[in-house]
Amino acid sequence: MLAYERERWAAGCRWLAGVDEAGRGPWAGPVVAAAVVLEPAFAEAELNGLLRGLTDSKQLSTRRREFFFAVLRSRAEVRIGLGCAEVAEIDACNILRATHRAMARALGQLEPAPEFALVDGLPVPGLPCPAQAIVRGDGLSLSIAAASIVAKVTRDRLMLELDRQFPAYGFARHKGYGTAVHQRALRELGPCPQHRRSFRPVREALN
Q: Which residue among 7, 116, 194, 205 is least crowded, i.e. fewest CB within 10 A of its CB?
């Protein structure tokens, strides 16, 4: 999980950020991106300690995600940047561009600015530093895995807040994804202000 990081560290890159997002697929709510810098000594020392088992957030239980989120947020050796694109922006420019903007914002929140980024998935234009895209990187890079945890937990908490605002849709259960429960609520109630009208199921519900 540190092969990509070690390559960059060996080349003299200390401020290396992993970048990932959460929320591209749901029909409602924002897309959230996280950028995480792990100090090399901390990552090496804790790879089989505090960070043991840290991987793609989709492979972990809610409890394990919350554990790693707490670790990452509590350590001085970890820097975190967050970026978000709200529903209006997603609808205005499409989900892919909105996701790329959220990633750039997350990197822009880091201090000092990262020298390089490892990004999950395909290449992302417009980032504020050089980057390497890694397909399925959240299972191959510790930095990207850390970013996937931070993005996922942050977005899930935002969806819990939206559930309190719009309780009839079940956002706390499905986090905006197109489950049967969500489909039924959308058909019966129509979209709420947090639904992405550029997504076909929401557009069809409007009609």
A: 7
